[in-house]
Design goal:
By secondary structure, this protein is an alpha/beta fold. It contains 14 helices and 18 strands. The chain has two domains: 112 residues, Roll (Urease, subunit C, domain 1), CATH 2.30.40.10; 305 residues, TIM Barrel. The strands form four sheets. Strands 6-7-8-9-10-11-12-13 form an eight-stranded parallel sheet, sandwiched between helices. It has a four-stranded mixed sheet with strand order 3-2-1-4, with no helix packed on it. The longest helix is centred in the middle third of the chain and has 18 residues. The structure holds fe (ii) ion. Fe (ii) ion binds next to loops.
């Protein structure tokens, strides 16, 4: 029996060690120890981690890599970022959107990031971002699952043509209905926008992913309306609430009522640790609030929580490198999720949890799944986050599509080793 690809001696995220992975025709045919068969390509994982690909459940690809255009965000604040984006989208071209997005996708592939849900602004009457990203979705199809969310960034009712443009974007082939209820002019308009957008999704059989309550105002409670509308319209499992940062500042009693409602509605919660730790709490003196929703508490209610990157080198965030391990690391730090079990959970927040939110089919390193995975320079998921481990090989449909040399440093120290591998620093066995 001959396979296209055979990976030997791999560790898996669930703790299995020393397994082999056999792939043929783009699918995983076997995951078990000691597979002896011919293969067109054999990779020795050497006891390192083979993980399903990273998944980014929340991104803005229409703005990525635009840092410095048309000028730099000098204050680094959300408000200056919004003003800058307003200036920039006047001069956007489809060609420029496509070029920057494809460049970002190259980076994503090198980081083992093979599925991305991106919001795309529909408040520009020309729908430049929509046109550009629809083209990109087709171009990257062989290597990245790209989902597009129609995002009325300036408000469904606050921006004059947003509703018309959103419907047009969906007609053009955008996959998901977005929203931004906390940015509408009044709480009532916010609630009305949630209801309207969920109805649009129900009529068209689409998923929903809203920027929801991305504010420090504890009275911003649009997630409650989103949970209600999800139940009313039978959208359970198809709706995501992104950011949800107001929950950080809400009263504990109210949150104890809210979390079961989110769980009942089977809403996916998407936190964006990197961007919200920098943007939230800006009106505080000291102590300053953390800009993250209540991840451990949502976990305890069985809510599916994912972490998104949100931004890379754009008007809102000048940092980032498409590294979902950096996102997981920030998420666990901000949420103080430092038990061994909680760190493993944070790894799932950038892999299997967002895969569930996106509804990805055939995801996982299991028999019958798509032969998509990443070999990391780390033995397990905790070490992968700690080291922001090098992606030694990225495999798509059974073919290696990116490689990076292992990180190794040479030392010139008398009486000390000549070289070190960061993955050789393991916890002491107790
Ligand atoms: Fe966002």
């Amino acid at each position: 029996m001959s396979f296209d690809l055979l990976v030997k001696n791999a560790n898996l995220p669930d703790g299995r060690t020393g397994v082999d992975i056999a792939c043929r025709d783009g699918l995983i045919e076997a995951v078990e120890p000691g597979i002896s068969a011919d293969a067109g390509n054999i990779i020795d994982a050497g006891g390192k981690l083979v993980s399903p690909p990273f998944v980014d459940s929340h991104f803005h690809m229409d703005a990525t890599l635009s840092l410095g255009l048309p000028r730099m965000n000098q204050s680094g604040t959300l408000l200056e970022g919004i003003a800058l984006w307003g200036e920039f989208k006047e001069i956007l071209t489809v060609e420029a959107v496509v070029e920057r997005a494809l460049k970002y996708c190259d980076l994503a592939v090198s980081q083992g990031l093979l599925a991305i849900r991106t919001h795309v602004d529909v408040c520009d009457d020309r729908l430049t971002g929509v046109e550009g990203l629809l083209e990109v979705r087709e171009k990257v199809k062989p290597y990245i699952d790209l989902q597009l969310v129609a995002f009325p960034q300036d408000g469904l009712y606050r921006s004059p043509n947003a509703e018309r443009n959103l419907l047009k974007a969906l007609d053009m082939g955008v996959d998901i209905v977005g929203g931004i209820p906390h940015f509408e002019r009044t709480m009532e308009d916010g609630a009305r926008s949630v209801a309207r957008l969920c109805e649009v999704a129900a009529e068209r059989g689409l998923m929903v992913d809203m920027h929801c309550d991305e504010t420090d105002d504890p009275m911003s409670r649009h997630i409650e309306t989103l949970a209600f509308e999800t139940q009313r319209l039978g959208l359970q499992g198809r709706v995501a609430g992104s950011h949800l940062t107001s929950m950080h500042s809400m009263d504990n009693y109210y949150v104890s009522k809210l979390l079961p409602l989110i769980a009942e509605a089977d809403i996916h919660a998407i936190a964006n640790p990197l961007i919200n730790i920098t943007l939230q709490g800006r009106h505080d003196t000291y102590p300053k609030r953390r800009g993250q929703t209540r991840v451990p508490e949502m976990r305890s209610y069985g809510i599916n929580v994912a972490f998104g990157h949100d931004c890379v080198m754009d008007p809102w965030y000048s940092m980032g490198s498409g590294d979902m391990l950096e996102v997981a690391s920030m998420g666990l730090h901000v949420a103080q999720m430092t038990s061994r079990d909680a760190i493993r959970y944070c790894y799932e927040c950038v892999t299997s949890h967002p895969a569930k939110a996106l509804g990805l089919e055939g995801y996982g390193v299991e028999e019958g799944c798509r032969a998509d995975f990443v070999l990391l320079q780390a033995r397990d998921t905790i070490e992968a986050i700690r080291l922001k481990a090098t992606r030694l090989a990225v495999v798509k449909a059974g073919k290696v599509i990116a490689t990076t040399p292992a990180r190794q440093s040479q030392l010139e120290l008398n009486g000390r080793p000549g070289s070190i591998d960061p993955a050789d620093y393991a916890p002491n066995e107790g």
